[in-house]
Amino acid sequence: MTVSTTSIVRPRRTEPRLGRKLLTSPTALLSIVWLVGLVVASLTAPLWLAHGPLEQDLSAVLQGPSAAHPLGTDELGRDLLSRIITAAAPTLFIALLTPIVGVSVAIPFTLWAARSARVEVVMNRVAEIVLSLPGMVIILAVIAAVGTNMPFVMSIFGLLVFGALYRVFFGQAKSLHRQLFVEAAAVDGVRPMRASLRHVLPNMSTTVIVQFVLIFGVAIGMQAGLAFIGLGPQPPEPTWGGMIQAASRFIFQQPWMMIPTGAVLALTIVAANALADVLAGGSAMPPPLISLRRRRRATGDAATAEAAAAATAEDVVAFTDEIVERDLSVENLVIGVDDGPALVTGVSLRVKPGTVMGLVGESGCGKSVTSYALLGLLAPGLSVRSGAIKWGDADLAQADERALQRIRGHEIAFISQEPTRALDPMFTIEWQLAAAVKRLRKVRGAEAKRVAAQLLTDVGIVDVPRVLKSYPHQISGGMAQRVAIALALAGTPSLLIADEPTTALDVTVQAEILALLRALVAERGMSVILVTHDLGVVADICDDVSVMYAGQIVESGSTRDVLVRPEHPYTMALLAADPHTIADLDDMPRLASIPGQVPPPGSWPAGCRFSQRCRFVTDECLTAIPLTARVVGSGGVRCVRHDEVRGRQEEWRTPAPTGGR
Amino acid sequence: MLTFLLKRVAFAILTLLVASFVAFMLVHLSGSTPGGVALGQSATPEQVHAYNVSVGWYDPWVVQFAGWIGQVLQGNLGVSLIDGRDIADDIAKRLPVTAALAVFGTLFSAILGIVLGVVAAVRGGAVDRGITVLNGILLSLPAFWVGVLLVYVFAVQLRLLPATGFVPLHVNPEAWARSLILPVVTIALTAAAGIARQTRASMGEALAQEHIRTLRAIGTPTTRILYVHALRSASLPVVASIAVQFIVLFGGSVIIEVLFALPGIGQAMQAAVGSADLPFVQALVLVATLVVVVVNLALEMFTIALDPKLRAS
User: Fold this and answer.
1) Overall average pLDDT of the A551-569 stretch
2) A354 touches chain B (CB under 8 A)
3) Contacts with B31 from chain A: Cβ below 8 Å
4) Is the peptide bond before A16 cis (omega within 30 degrees of 0)?
5) What pLDDT, on the 0 to 100 scale, is given for residue A2?
6) How is residue A54 annotated by DSSP?
7) Is the per-residue pLDDT at A83 higher than 60?
8) Most buried by CB count within 10 Å: which residue of A620, A630, B45, B171?
9) Has residue B76 got a pLDDT over 80?
10) Mapping DSSP to helix (H, G, I), strand (E, B) and coil, where does residue A40 land?
11) Would you place residue A312 in the very low, low, confident or very high pLDDT band (cuts 50, 70, 90)?
């Protein structure tokens, strides 16, 4: 390769971003003003302060604030304002030595360790030893040896924070090294040292600056603490720690004395920490997957009490193995981001007992969101805006948490895409299954364990005792999916919602899981909603299918009708793009690809949402398209031209300009 | 598992050796000599030299270090240069004070930190922001200043608790407890904020895990999801953060013991450093490192017991 890859993959610069972060945050601006202001005031102190820091006035000792002494005086009548301000610059400058030493030692070793596995082993050990040294005690030993030479002591403290800094830096340097651009640079012949300096270090700058500022704050506190116990700069030189120590001695006579110094010291450390916080991007948490707060319902106390009574009555109903046969019918479901765009509009589905409904479409069409909504499992910030989810007599779209809790697991259950992550890694399979069985079937210890074992047998697990004792990380993905299905069956639900249950599994395991689902449907009369993007899976197991595109159902009907005689161009395109169908069409080896991407929520075109990618698009398609009856079979299709275009799916296999105008 | 344990113990011993070597070298590179400190200003250089020779100060440092380690292994930490006290005896007398401060401080900070962190993560919104700001402030306030403020409020104004001083447990348990309350609260606040931060972050991460949705889908009640499942996965990083905070807290006991006039090893450290009592300083570094290393080792074992993945391997 003659083109230099490093020039293509030059990392982005981070400085402008940092600068903007600082300038747009009032907290950061305030912190900077405070720190810089203190230093400037301190350096210019002799010019504007009325009293010198050592100037004693024994006629005015231990005074509160006054015009002559705005912050009062100490036990020797010295002006507190003058002493605080005078002490500021030396304190801050000496405290800077700690992060300077710490960062300049930690960075070279970090970069070296990130490059070489041998160095990494040694440095990790060294960092661990330094981390487990009691820093304060070592610092005191240093003072015992060299006396209260603060610049030297604080520099040594910089060496003692090496362990903590190295840990933070190394994690990031290592992951940066693994990233493509650094490896590309290595392949390209850039020497390792240069690669580190050019590609790794600039990308670490935010972390380094954040740690620098944090250590700076710690160093200020450490310095004041040492001065407080008399091991800092010696009197009469003013130090914040020493002044607080003096204040503590006169706390009975003049409690005011500890306020100004303590407040200045505290505010300075607060400023440093706040600055680091802003630079680090705050303390945002990952959003929880499901909303844990109860949805508030406008019901009176009487209604609540009644509902509670009903709930108790229902809860004590003896568990039966009988499946309650109920229809699920979703009508015009609209799901949206609160204060944002709609994700799903007008989804209608009907699932009859003992049947399997496939919900297919590309990623980003709203399949999973729809499936979450059915059980009230939407992530926080998403909600059902309108429409109904009729389950027997109940409307799950309107139901409160309490009502949903009675349905979840008992009547409708859910299995997810990532079987290994669907189980709690901290508990054994037996513990998790037995806990669910106890709650859902109202049985006790030994019986719950027996049922748990039975459930595993039911889902086709051979070595039940071993699996029961295992933790989720000890079993394979296929096994985990069987366990997840067993967990879902613990309450003998009549409807199982399966969100891409086989996507993460090997092909052979996929077939086994599908066979298991099919058997469960046949034996138990259970119904299933199967979310998938795999038409092979649909053909294999589904009775009915609904095709989703950009938040809408675009075609529905029996699997036979939809897959064999598609009427919507999108369904046709999906079929033509499916490798499984190639086998049947020896003379048509070309696999279709649908141009473009699913438009994201909020930027759906008016009219037919598929129009931009559709090869059959005409002006008719630009007005809103209702779901109309299929020409062949029962079900619906959302295409004004479906009568004209049906049967033309093979055209998708030849590339052609489409929509997009 | 056994090999892992042995490795960790070996590593702990290595850490101890490093710490004691650092202390030894510091003492030897310092300007003072044992004779100079022990005999004081009035001694002639000849007397000082004779004293130094008698304690082996001019022997090769390898010999001295090995000799010192040998003495330590026999439980002999030497005598104070200032008043000839037996250092091991003195530390043994002081250890219960510091231990009480550290143990109760760690317990209190762990409880307070976990409660604050869990509440912040679970309640979210304004409660979360409030606790986050509180944590930021607690992390920034110097403990000794907070201690003085607490003394002012609870000892000077309300007269509920003694301002300073210490009553041994066997003398009067009630007075012992009262003399420890303010120091324990003071030393625990910063650590509590650190633990609260970690707990909040870990709870947040735990609640974003895929299995939470599974639990919800089979109708697991919210309280059980939060306090059995999420807290359980958060427990590992939280225990690790308690271990880190313990080191900081233990170091902070020097300042707190001076502030509250508690006769613990921190106070002895301050006195020994102030008077350049070199063998005492050297012994205290060793003892402090020993405590930190042992506590960290114990917490690490606890973490392993908590983590099924680590336990199995």
Assistant:
1) 90
2) no
3) 145-147
4) no
5) 36
6) T
7) yes
8) A630
9) yes
10) helix
11) very low
Q: What is the pLDDT of residue A308?
A: 44
Q: How far apart are the first and last CA of chain B?
A: 7
**Alpha carbon distance A102, A115 (integer Å):** 20
Of B19, B211, B226, the CB nearest to A423: B211
Percent of chain B with pLDDT over 70: 99
Chain B, 200-229: which have a CB under 8 Å from a chain A CB?
200-201, 204-205, 207-222, 225-226, 229
Strands A328-337 and A382-391: antiparallel
Structure tokens at A73: 């005086």
Q: Confidence class of residue A52 from pLDDT cuts 50, 70 and 90?
A: confident
Cβ-Cβ contacts under 8 Å for B138 (sequence gap 6 or more)? B189, B190, B192, B193
Q: Confidence band (pLDDT; 50, 70, 90) for A586? A: low
Tell me how crowded residue B213 is: count the other CB atoms within 10 A of its CB.
20
Residue A17 — φ and ψ, nearest 5°?
-65, -45
Output phi, psi for A633, to 5 deg. Answer: 75, 180
- Give, to the nearest 10 degrees, the angle between helix B87-123 and helix B278-306: 40
Q: Which of residues 219-278 of A touch B (CB under 8 A)?
A: 221, 224-225, 228-231, 241, 244, 247-248, 251-252, 255, 258, 262, 265-266, 269-270, 272-274, 277
Strands (E), A352-459: 356-360, 382-391, 394-395, 412-415
8 Å CB contact between B236 and B198: no
CA separation for the pair B169, B236 (Å, rounded): 34
The angle at the Cα of A262, spanning A260 to A267, to the nearest 5 degrees, equals 95
Burial of A112 (0-12, 13-18, 19+ CB in 10 A): middle
Average pLDDT over residues A594-599: 83
A108 — phi, psi (to 5°)?
-60, -40
Question: What is the phi/psi pair of residue B68, to 5°?
Answer: -65, -45
Distance, in Å, from the CA atom of B284 to the CA atom of B87, rounded to the nearest integer, reads 9
CA gap B232, A430 in Å, rounded: 17
Q: Rounded mean pLDDT of B62-74?
A: 89
Cross-chain residue pair A484–B214, CB shorter than 8 Å:
yes
What Cα–Cα distance (Å) separates residue B152 from each residue in A103, A162, B258?
39, 37, 16
> ∠ CA B41-B284-B166 to the nearest 5 degrees?
95
CA distance A43 to A47: 9
pLDDT tens track for A538-549 = 988 999 999 999
Q: What is the ipTM of this complex?
A: 0.91
Asked whether A198 and A204 are in contact (CB, 8 A), the reply is no
Q: How far apart are CA A241 and CA A251, in angstroms?
A: 15
DSSP string over A56-85: --TTS-S--S-SSSTT-B-TT--BHHHHHH
How many beta-carbon contacts under 8 Å exist across A and B? 261
Residues on chain B touching A128 (C-beta within 8 angstroms): 11, 15
- Sequence-distant (6+) residues with CB within 8 A of A194 are none
CB within 8 A of A304, min separation 6: which ones? none
Q: Which tokens hold the place of A148?
A: 């209260």
- Burial tier of A630 (Cβ tally within 10 Å: 0-12, 13-18, 19+): buried
Amino acid at A565: R
Q: Which residues are CB-contacts of A242 (< 8 A; sequence separation ≥ 6)?
A: A227, A228, A230, A232, A233, A235
Report the alpha-carbon distance of residue B232 to residue B229 in Å, rounded.
Answer: 5
Are the C-beta atoms of residues A115 and A200 closer than 8 Å to each other?
no
